Amino acid sequence: MTVMNMIQAINSAHDVMMERDSAVVAMGEDVGYFGGVFRATEHLQKKYGKSRVFDTPISENGIIGAAIGMAAYGLRPVAEIQFADYIYPAFDQLVSEAARMRYRTAGEWSLPLTVRSPYGGGIFGGQTHSQSPESLFAHVAGLKTVIPSNPYDAKGLLIAAIEDPDPVLFFEPKRIYNGPFDGFFDRPVTPWAKHPKAEVPEGHYTVPLGKAAVVREGEAVTIVAYGTMVHVVLATIEANGIEAEVIDLRTILPIDIETIEESVKKTGRCVVVHEATRTGGFGGELSALIQERCFYHLEAPVQRATGFDTPYPHSLEWAYFPGPIRIGTAIKKALED
Amino acid sequence: MTSQIERPNRPALSLHVPEPNARPGDEIDFSHIEIPAAGSVRRPDIGASPAETHELVYSLVRVLDDERRAVGPWDPRLDPDTLLRIYRDMVTVRIFDDRMYRAQRQGKTSFYMKSTGEEAVAVAAAHALERDDMTFPTYRQQGILVARGYPLRDMMCQVYSNRADPLKGRQLPIMYSSRDYGFFSISGNLATQYPQAVGWAMASAIRGDSRIASAYIGDGSTAEGDFHAAVTFAGVYRAPVILNIVNNQWAISSFSGIAGGELTTFAARAVGYGIAGLRVDGNDPLAVYAATRWAADRARSNLGPTLIEMFTYRVEGHSTSDDPSAYRPKNAGAAWPLGDPIDRLRKHLELLGAWDEARETELRETVEAEVRAAQREAEKQGTLVTSSIEFPQDVRTMFEDVFEDMPWHLREQQEQMVAELEAKRK
């Protein structure tokens, strides 16, 4: 075991997989010599050579289009899109091509392709470096969408994504790359070193896709979150002394409905939390699933605490960000209704 | 109602929208097309720098002259057997297209796309590649499958979306896929296959393989962002790929000028990206073969990509859903100044003494019989069902292959659908 932050864990996942499987290649803007703008692929080019770790032109449709061709050939490409906000030029390649290749060829071609991308706010990135587009991809048949919330899961999930036979979108909450941000932006940031999930095995292991984690048990209310929001939720309930059960979804799709269902049937109350804009967000899907499956166990309507339906503002970041106040209010409503 | 815009002392701007020189009712006019004499274009060495090819992008590589002789440095000097195979494959494609077009008109399927006039672009090129090279076609290169000996019956089963459709009825007719025959799945979305082909070629280079990729795109689709991305990547990584632009002059109803075809040649795109480029008479099977072979040898020697404009003409409508008489003069294809690829090769074979009327009649009869037999076999497996819930496929297969393993939500939806159909059958 070694203490790692998220970046180190993600870097280690690449390293482990590139060592084990010569078909694994890493590519993206600034990914090669420099090791990526967040340094997630640092040292890899030196270790594995330029033909396995390389810089690409600034062309997201080109990156994903080429990665699809590589996966069709038999490689396992790990493509980095520098910010999730930049992924839209590749939308057609992901939605119309990668997602459907197995289906449209009746299984003749499958694409073991992983697309990594830093996402989410909290870093003063403005409207082009803060977005959370996960629900756009969860809506697409044939894509898996994964979001880790800590170094241990990040490495295990990324290895599972690389080994997965289908295309996986792996969104990395960039606000917690260096420490588990709890949403109290006016307090000092704690580093990962003090967090138990920063203990990461150096070698190969996986965290299964499609399996949520109950990160805190409780009886009062179920809170479903993922990414940065897991930490904000934990800090919020601690600050308010609420005995909540907190589920870290980890995989957006396929969703682990069993874990959610079991918890909500126990608590009878539920709040879903995400950073992304509210309308049409993944919280709507979660809320619908919960009322379809747990209606007679619910004692209050399912609440949502989310980003607002505006572009992500720069100076008003902490007014936009679903922090402890918004989440606390939603929990209060779920408990009192 | 627009208000008068104030523009003191400045002339009013106007928008230029390109327009073809002939519309329905006009006399067809191809006089603006410059056609260099066959044999007049030089053939650079395989190892030439891309820049040494760049004057060629404004010319036209042609081998068969007006007397149907093979002339000049691009003559691939093919033996009669190879020529006959190319000829036979092109004839097969045309007869196949005619049968399937009729089948669509008879209501046996929803849709069809002919490649009439463009057979050489697929067939002759396929013969110039190695059998294990990967092609990334559009929907008008069915000739590649024919040239590689893919069973006609299986193609038809795909067109019919029937019980034996290898793609389980999931794709529109002619969106074939065959890994074993080096024929990448056709998307239906345009240009997406171009960067994929480059990625496949990059992977082949990463692995130290010797196989190359050959990609196809239409003149219209070169306007897509994926074209730019693909050619950039191909050049940057010196990918072993042939980038064919099939300029058949039409993108449904839009003439090539709407994609920039009046401003320069499509082959000239190669100049801006700094890669090798050729412009080829796509209705000259020998020129298509020679150019493809040149580009393939180059790619296989690690010398990088070649962009080839295959200059041809879409003789028929875009698809069975299109009526070209609504936007261009009737019989435009018959007036195409570069002739018909099948007719041209036939006359060349006759000149060589390898062909005559009797052999032609025999070949036509044989291929017609083969295609008819394949059609009978295919139709034994059914044709497209559009007004019944007695589907050709087991409906449960609808939920297969979304992922390798079926997640719970698809399993639930599968059960729901089965229950729906059971209720309807009662």
Automatic annotation (TrEMBL), chain B:
Residue ranges of the TM segments? none
| Domain Dehydrogenase E1 component stretches | 88-383
Q: Which UniProt keywords apply?
A: Oxidoreductase, Thiamine pyrophosphate
Q: Which cofactor does it need?
A: thiamine diphosphate
Main enzyme class: oxidoreductase
User: Catalyzes what?
Assistant: N(6)-[(R)-lipoyl]-L-lysyl-[protein] + 3-methyl-2-oxobutanoate + H(+) = N(6)-[(R)-S(8)-2-methylpropanoyldihydrolipoyl]-L-lysyl-[protein] + CO2
Instruction: Please report the stretch or stretches of sequence annotated as the 2-oxoisovalerate dehydrogenase E1 alpha subunit N-terminal domain.
Output: 11-50
One of the protein's GO biological processes = branched-chain amino acid catabolic process
Q: Which GO terms describe its molecular function?
A: branched-chain 2-oxo acid dehydrogenase activity
Mention any Pfam family matching this sequence: E1_dh
The ranges of region (Disordered) come to: 1-25
Q: InterPro entries under this entry? A: Alpha-ketoacid_DH_E1_comp, DH_E1, Oxoisoval_DH_suAlpha_N_dom, THDP-binding
EC numbers for this chain: 1.2.4.4
**Function as written in the Swiss-Prot or TrEMBL entry:** The branched-chain alpha-keto dehydrogenase complex catalyzes the overall conversion of alpha-keto acids to acyl-CoA and CO(2). It contains multiple copies of three enzymatic components: branched-chain alpha-keto acid decarboxylase (E1), lipoamide acyltransferase (E2) and lipoamide dehydrogenase (E3).
Family from the record:
Belongs to the BCKDHA family.
Full protein name = 2-oxoisovalerate dehydrogenase subunit alpha
